[in-house]
From TrEMBL:
<dbReference type="InterPro" id="IPR011335">
    <property type="entry name" value="Restrct_endonuc-II-like"/>
</dbReference>
<protein>
    <recommendedName>
        <fullName>UPF0102 protein PAGU1578_01940</fullName>
    </recommendedName>
</protein>
<dbReference type="Pfam" id="PF02021">
    <property type="entry name" value="UPF0102"/>
</dbReference>
<dbReference type="InterPro" id="IPR011856">
    <property type="entry name" value="tRNA_endonuc-like_dom_sf"/>
</dbReference>
<dbReference type="InterPro" id="IPR003509">
    <property type="entry name" value="UPF0102_YraN-like"/>
</dbReference>
<dbReference type="GO" id="GO:0003676">
    <property type="term" value="F:nucleic acid binding"/>
</dbReference>
<comment type="similarity">
    <text>Belongs to the UPF0102 family.</text>
</comment>
Length: 133
């Protein structure tokens, strides 16, 4: 886990703003891990993928969950089996597009990034690669 300072009063953010802020933090973190972001908020008729990143020939389909606490469970628990199914189906649309462009891939990874926002204006990031199949 890594801790990052929140530049604004994170306690005042509504749920949508908190999610957007969490995605921004996660993008920066993912890039620092050496992954190249291919696209964000990839939308299909079956669902959306927050971030698609690449490392060599491995594509990472990343779901971001930001929370102020664990009162309602861990952020990763919000990535239900149903949500995982939608992410996997959306990933197949992306793979279809890769094939159409004659681009190659070797592996797929379905990852989750948890962003915990603390009252002291810091955020803790927990990156879980290959979190589900």
């Amino acid at each position: 886990m890594n801790t990052i300072n929140c530049e604004e009063n994170c306690n005042l953010l509504d749920a949508k703003a908190l999610g957007n802020w969490g995605e921004d933090i996660a993008r920066h973190y993912i890039e620092k891990q050496g992954l190249k972001i291919v696209t964000t908020n990839y939308k299909t008729k079956v669902g959306e993928i927050d971030i698609i990143a690449k490392n060599g020939l491995t594509y990472h389909f990343i779901e971001i969950k930001a929370r102020r606490g664990v009162t309602h469970g861990l952020p990763r628990e919000a990535v239900s089996k149903r949500k995982q199914k939608h992410i996997k189906q959306a990933a197949m649309y992306f793979i279809r597009d890769l094939r159409a462009q004659n681009r190659k891939w070797k592996e797929l990874s379905f990852d989750v990034v948890e962003v915990y926002v603390h009252e002291d204006l810091k955020a803790t990031i927990h990156y879980m690669p290959q979190c589900f199949l």
